[in-house]
Amino acid sequence: MNTYQRSYTFSFLLVFVVLILFHPALSTHVNTLSSSESLTISSKRVLISPGGVFELGFFKPSGRSRWYLGIRYRKVSKTTYAWVANRDNPLSNSIGTLKISSNNLVLLGQSNNTVWSTNLTSGNYVRSPVEAELLPNGNFVMRYKESSSGFLWQSFDFPTDTLLPEMKLGYDLKTRRNRFLTSWRSSDDPSSGDTMYKLNIRRGLPEFILMHGRLKSQRSGPWNGIGFSGIPEVQGLNYMVHNYTENSEEIAYSFHMTNQSIYSRLTVNASTLNRFTWIPPSWAWSTLWATPTDKCDIVEICGPYAYCYRSPYPTCNCIKGFVPKNQGNWKFGDGSDGCVRSMRLNCSGDGFLRLNNMKLPDTVTATVDRRIDVEKCEERCLSDCNCTSFATADVRAGGVGCIFWTGEIVDIRKYDVGGQDLYVRLNYAADLGSSILM
Ligand SMILES: *[C@@H]1O[C@H](CO)[C@@H](O)[C@H](O)[C@H]1NC(C)=O
Ligand SMILES: *[C@@H]1O[C@H](CO)[C@@H](O)[C@H](O)[C@H]1NC(C)=O
Ligand SMILES: *[C@@H]1O[C@H](CO)[C@@H](O)[C@H](O)[C@H]1NC(C)=O
Ligand SMILES: *[C@@H]1O[C@H](CO)[C@@H](O)[C@H](O)[C@H]1NC(C)=O
Ligand SMILES: *[C@@H]1O[C@H](CO)[C@@H](O)[C@H](O)[C@H]1NC(C)=O
Ligand SMILES: *[C@@H]1O[C@H](CO)[C@@H](O)[C@H](O)[C@H]1NC(C)=O
Ligand SMILES: *[C@@H]1O[C@H](CO)[C@@H](O)[C@H](O)[C@H]1NC(C)=O
Prior knowledge:
By secondary structure, the protein is mainly beta.
């Protein structure tokens, strides 16, 4: 081949490549994997979401020979993964194939061993061809080719450590699946770490809990119509909307962006839950907030009937009408034993002390009635001698709905701004008769 021929061939190839890249019929498929195609590590092919925010492909995060299939941001300078398929079962070398087999997405290793699968039980029932698609919001879905509605499977149902806009965190009552976040083991190891952010639905009122292994680290507090009283989410940002839904189908939190050029994600790492944002033209993720923020966020640092207040540094305080249970420890700054009533309750003659800007107590011992207002809530608490406090369930429009606690109240904190009113039952004659202020 002479120089002329070589450059001719090169030009021809270039035109060919350009045609493939920009051909309208072909470019619509860069986000789609059909049932006859596959994605291999060696081909370096990736699926790109329409709009170009996300891409799906293989990656090797460390020097070790461990390969993963994942979704990452394309336009973000610091490589950031939003989802990993085979986080706990890496490919052991650079031979790996993603394809559709018997209506399942499967990831195969060197000897065609299945490393990961969508595991749909109806997988053998072939109704019509299925295909996989990376959607603009970063959701990797599998669906019937000609059907526009409904997914057979979606990555949004299997979160890794990151909640993306439009993704739901929490319980799906139909599939009985609780979707939660689990940290990476370390910054170059996506395998499941010990820290989780998970909706607790076992008893009382649902709330999200940050867990380190089996240890509760921080509670979100229940949703109050605007936010979670224990999460420092910034309210009223003009580019982000929060949504909490509790109905017969689901108990779930999600958020979405009203300005699509701003990215935001909720990510759990080994120590904290973080809200990261990417606001152009900055070329970095910034941390909008992280929790736990201080000692006061740590579950039960103060014990029953005590609240934590950071002024000037975190300390435990007894609610008015209560005294430290263990004076000795209390003096040395250990408030974990909490406080006890200085005057016993007189069931029929009690009243309530209002504490403002509070993170509501642990809702495991709480009951909710969304139909009644705050006056009815007070009556209801008063009429049950075991009821120790109450609060409004939804702070909007002056407060609707009623949460009441029976037994000890624990894990309470006071803020300078934010939080909500908490009403604590006291013996009226002894504690409230003179002054009802904190
Ligand atoms: C894996 O499967 C492909 C396609 O079915 C086949 O061509 C290949 O020989 C298989 N490889 C091994 C190691 O079995
Ligand atoms: C699929 O099923 C296999 C065998 O039951 C299991 O080991 C694997 O974890 C499942 N994969 C997923 C992604 O759930
Ligand atoms: C909140 O989410 C639910 C379902 O999860 C949806 O029906 C509803 O429209 C959403 N509300 C807003 C304001 O986005
Ligand atoms: C978790 O993220 C926060 C916020 O970016 C950071 O300060 C902290 O060092 C991270 N922790 C770990 C263990 O990576
Ligand atoms: C969206 O955010 C970007 C970056 O802050 C800003 O430049 C742009 O004006 C915003 N667009 C709208 C419609 O608010
Ligand atoms: C409770 O309070 C009422 C009204 O103040 C009083 O009449 C009653 O004796 C008290 N009962 C007890 C057990 O202290
Ligand atoms: C109050 O608590 C006691 C002890 O736990 C229990 O025996 C009693 O039934 C409770 N009363 C009501 C009205 O729930």
